[in-house]
Task: structure prediction
Amino acid sequence: MRTTFLCVFTLLSSALAADLTVQKWHGNGVCYSGYRAGQNPQLNRFPTQAQILEDLKILERNWKLIRLYGGDRHSQDVLEVIRREKIGLKVLLGIWLDGRPGREGENAAQTATGIRLANAYKDIVLAVSVGNEVLVSWSDHKLTEERAIEYVAQVKKAVTCPVTVADDSLYWRQPQAKLADVVDFITTHTYPMWGREDIDTAMPSTIKNYESVRKAHPGKTVALGEAGWASYTVGEQHAPRAGDEQKQKRYYEELTAWAKANDVTVFYFEAFDEPWKGTGTESHWGLFSEGRKAKLAMRTLYPDLMPAGPTSPSYPPPAAPAKESQ
Result:
């Protein structure tokens, strides 16, 4: 009887799994990187599985989908924990690619690991994203379009799930973007804050960028792989005082409502602050702090994760603002 139940449960779970190639809202999605203080993917200092379990138990309370970025130990640990602990989350798995000279070996390792994980966790991995922001002009790890297509072809031959590439709308809005013909669906990014938009024009800007991609590639399913609002900003690359928890809350709520109403799967950027990215804007995109306390956008859903002290935390400016990337 137990075996029969497990088989039925597995079939139902498979039937209910989201098909990201279909243009619809598949449930709340969020980008997840679990790196805490002292941890850094560039130094191979990864979160423990205990820390990952704490994170995933937080996330499954509000999200159905998470996006991971690397074919690496962190992604493997996340997938292991999801399966072992029966966490109710599905995954858009990433393969990190870097077009700079000398990174060929790392790219090969990322690709091989991503393929292995996608095949080992078919019940959890919905799709694989081959590269992240490797085509847009301002990328600091840019690939040629031809090389990106080769990586996509390699992965598509080796996995059974859909394959995509995640890049900025500046790339995808071009009708001549060749990757659109080889991916199973498009994953695009948009950040109104980096466009010096403030909160009143944030959603109109988001919609405009998204629709520009839809127009450039009619009939192609388009998901939003990254869109978010930082709770704190440093530097001159944003509207004055753009970073704010109230504004982050508004953007999250408006984006989520729009996604549901317009059949768009969105992976909100991001779940938790990542201190390894420095003390500036880049480390403050989380809906939760690095200490796993709820920021304003999440406090109704997570009253048990309220921060101690002031209800709207302030962040002291760094002594030397970190250089910001696009």
